[in-house]
Structure formats: structure tokens, C-alpha cells
Amino acid sequence: MRIYCLVVLLLAAAAFGQEEGNLMTKEALVHALPADKDHPLTREVIDVHEEEISFPQSSKMILIVHYRAGQASWESRADDRVVLALKQGDQFEILKVLESDSTVDDGKLISETDFNEIPIVTNGRHFIDIQTNYSGSGAAVLDDVYAISSQGVLSSIPFEDVDKSKLLKAGDELRNGGFLFQDGAFVFESGVYLDKDCESCPSQGMYHARFKLTGDFKEDPAKHEFEPDFKFVIDKEWRDSR
């Protein structure tokens, strides 16, 4: 019993230590997260892997640990936590902790979001794409592509706004769009709707855009630091008419 209690306490301490900026060993990070007052269900580790991320003039390794709660309502997303940690010698510095937007209703876990992690390489640079999947109509997906500074700070690379495309006419709306990474580039596809259209019937056809990565790491000579200065811009766009 004493050994069991000690293990529970150690696991709870590991979960508590998962705050951005903390240093932890890989062994401490790859255990299940016990239930607590803020999250009443245990989250098991479903995936652990290290991925390269481009650093100014070099690269570093990011440890990705994906946890998931075992009981989610059938109509909701899975309930996740994702930890991104930078390798620092024999330990890992926690850079980012992502949590599902979830609640417990009548004993059932209801989650509005869950995550996928996808390493990507474009223009010879390595980045990490965290996809946030949303419940509800259209099953929307948000892609956050992370770069890292010389100070070990993650930042999301912005995408040019497709809603401002010159191919869109007055009254056109882009709905239920999504990104796909293929052949080293992001491709966006969306239905083009009028306000009166139902979600399954984009009366104005489809919009497509292919993005390219621009920019580089920007140096601050006074501080001898490098910050990511990237952007995904539309390289090609077109419409399919109905």
C-alpha cells in the first residue's frame, strides 16, 4: 500500500510539474497523468516521439508527449493533453502544454477539441504542425505551425488570410475549409457559399489555395539572438465553378 501511494504521489508530482519553463526527464514525462480536482479522469500516454525542429543555423530536438483520457462521450472529441519539450542535455524544457477544451456533464466527459501532431519539412526547414480538431458542424481543423527562436521560444507561423482573396466576389463566404500538407506545401480547400446556402451545398463552387513559406530567422545583432520571421503566403489560388 505504501509503495502504491508513493507511485501515485510521484505521478501527481510529474503532472503538476508540467508547466512551461520547467525541466523534466523523459522518464517523468511519459507516465499516465492521474485524475485530480481539475480533471477527474486519468490520461494515458498514447504517443511519444522526438522530432527535429529548425533552429537558427542548426536544429534541435523536440519531445512530443500525447496523453488522452479514456472516457469521452460518443458525440464529442477525444480529451487530450500534448506537451512539447526542448531537449536540454539529459532533460527536457517544457515549451508548450496544450489541453482539450472539455467539461464533465452528468459523469460523462465532453470534449470540444483534440489534437494531432505532424512534423513537416518545407524549404529545407523542419517545423511542427499541431492540428486542433473541433467538434460541431463541419468538424473544423486549425493548423498551428510552430517555429523556435534561439532563446527556445515557440511561435506560430501565420498564414495569409484567404478570406481577403481577390477571387472572392461580393457575398461569397468560405466555410468548412481545411488545410492539407502535401509535396512540401500547405493546400487549402473550402466551399464558397452565399449566406442562404445550407452547410452541405456551397452554391458558388470550391476555392483552392497553395501556400509557400517565406522569410527566415531574423537576427537582433545587439542581443545576438534570432527570432523566426516566417509567413505562409498564397502562391497559387483558383476556383472550381458548379
Short descriptors:
242 residues; mainly beta; five-stranded antiparallel beta sheet; four-stranded antiparallel beta sheet; 2 helices; 15 strands; 55% strand; flat; disordered N terminus
Describe the structure.
There is one protein chain. This protein has 242 residues and is mainly β. 8% of the residues lie in helices and 55% in strands. It contains two helices and 15 strands. The protein has helices spanning 2-16, 26-29, and strands at 23-24, 43-55, 58-69, 80-88, 91-99, 102-105, 108-111, 113-122, 125-134, 141-148, 154-156, 173-182, 185-193, 206-220, 225-240. The strands form four sheets. Strands 1-5-4-3-2 form a five-stranded antiparallel β-sheet. Strand 6 (102-105) and strand 7 form a beta hairpin. The protein is flat and about 55 Å long. The protein starts with a helix and ends with a strand. Residues 1-13 have low confidence and may be disordered.
